[in-house]
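lol ok so funny story. i was supposed to be doing the assay writeup but got distracted and ended up predicting the structure for this chain instead. priorities right. anyway since i did it might as well share w the group, maybe its usefull for someone
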Amino acid sequence: APGGGGLAVMPPAPSPNRSAAGSALHMSFLSTPSRIPQSSPAHGGDLSMATPLFSPGFTASSPAMPASAMHAAQGGVIAAPSQSNVDAYAAALAEVIAGMSADARSAAAAGAPCTRFKELEEERLRVAEGENRGEYNGGPQGLLVNLWDLLRFMLGEADASVGLPKGGAAPGRIAWGLAGGAKAFLQAQYMGIVDAHVAGGAVHAAHARIAAYVEQLEKSGALSAQATLQGSRVTVGAADVPFWPLLYMCLRCGALEEAVAVARAAAQQSNPDSDGAVFDCLEAAVAAQATGAGDAASWRSPAAAELRRRYELAKARGEEGGCPYRLTVLNLLSGADARRRSSVARTIEDYIWAGLWLAGAPAAAEPGAQGGGGADYDALGALERSIVGYGEAHFDPERRNPLAYALVLLQVQAFEKAVNYLAASGKTAEATHLALALDYYDVLKTEANHDAAAAAAQGNRMVLHTPGPASAGGEPELAPFVTLAPLVQLYTQRMVVADAATALAYVLRVREPYARLAQLVRLVRCNRQGYDHLLGVVREGDHRRTAGLLDAHLPDAEVKRVARTAGQKALQAGASADAIELFARAEDFHLVSDVLCEQLSASVVPPAGGAAGTGGERGFWQSAALSFLRKGIAAADGGAADEVRHNPAPPGTTNPNANPNANPEPNPNPNPKVLKMLLSLHSFFDLAARDAHQEALTTMQAMGLFPATNRDIADRVDTYHGLPMQVG
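and the output, tada:
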């Protein structure tokens, strides 16, 4: 026996391709040759193997193998994929996700995700419909372009001066910044509609283009009779149009300077409606826009007070039946009535735009509020409730165009409801990428910052609706949070096998520690033949793990935690060979030894009727134990601790995974003595089954269990009771 340890030599045993539990047995850590070489006890067999284990050619001094250079090692390990197995569109989306680095959140950054998503969808639209299309497209693909363009404005990618405040801010200021971005998008979108309707771009001045558009509306009968027949008119360029509708359209396009030009032209034409108060309010609005003070600043001027007086006087006189555009403009410029969002709105976008404009109006603020504070946030919440209150059936009654309703929800900052509605409508890809983009900018409620979402994610449950009462339309209420990890899992359910590297980019966007650990473990467990690619290989000599794909994104301790937890999951599923491979990559060799001892203990006696030593799985575990002993790991460091045993999840959680913040505790090194004893027992029963009784007894002599005389019985009983649990 080698080293006097009493280790008997196993007879030849072919290694099966699969265990009864379905584990892949040929892997890089304990891949065994088809034949275990015989070594004679007389010559002190050295446990030499016919083929190198771990990864061929690796020694303690070998440099770590880069993930891009992973190759197929002996034992059937799958190499890193040379090309993506997903389609080009999905690969392009994944490239944007992979580019979401923490230091690229500025509007000018090349990795701005919403901008890149918009460019990708615009390219798809050009391919699908050709170049001869208008800027505004109401089809599904056009709506998807608009969705990402909206978020560009809201999140500050389109214009750093509007949208999400930079550097963090109070919730009210964040909401106000997002509202400003949504308003800027709706204005730019409307200006695009104007430009699309003014033929050939022959009209260069913006206010002249708007006037030409108003002229078209008047000729087509789109303006009401009151707007056309009541109120003064103004000539701008070649167009002679009603003054108040033109002024409203300038405001609707966000063209404040053009509105000033219209008021100036009207005054020069002795128009009675364009007086000093209107002109002063418009100039105050331009100044507030230039300084970033917001609409509320212009509403505090004496001119705005005068327009509020005119508005209230017109209402008191019952002039609502007059030109609706006059009352609307007076209200917008003075902030007189925040609840009367617009009497001339022709679309839901018009209605939301007016609500965003008036969100900070003095009438919506609490006493003493100066705009831009908590009162603004409350007004925006009221706007959201008014839109959501209509119910999804109002906007998408047959669920044929969920993107249209999602756009509406996004405009009023109902981000979580927009994501959940897309997911509930089967738009998994759109919902996933929308959620990841919003989460990237920290404006989405997920399991990382919402208790109800965290509880659902721990149970791996996707929650799209709340269990409460239905909305006014009879539909269940959309959940006010997003269970991001289950959503990512749904989107990557095929990708984890077809293209693990692409799936990893999505999993890494999950920020909640337990949820991300669970997703990483799932990724590893779904790639049973690709452990080398994901987790690296264990080198000969120092028995340390080389870098795998996960190491390019995670610290070493977290990669080992993933491997360790995946090993525990594999063990729970009865996939012991997988568990060994995973524990080895966590450098938890004491757990490798434990699994080997458990398997050998369960198969000490050959199966009835089977040839001794040749039972497929029994023979494999004998060979695997020999391979492990040959590596000499018993004298090495026992590796990291078993966190699942020593550091369970915090009380009150249902998460079965290890605590990612726990500190490892030391664990004993693997004990080769137990493995040698079990192998000796295997050899004893194999020899006895072949009636080689004397050889069988000789095999057991080193264990000191069989008494030679009556006087030895008591000592042998004590020896038996002192055996390790796995042997006894």
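The first strand starts at residue 233 and ends at 236. The radius of gyration is 36 Å.
back to the writeup now i swear
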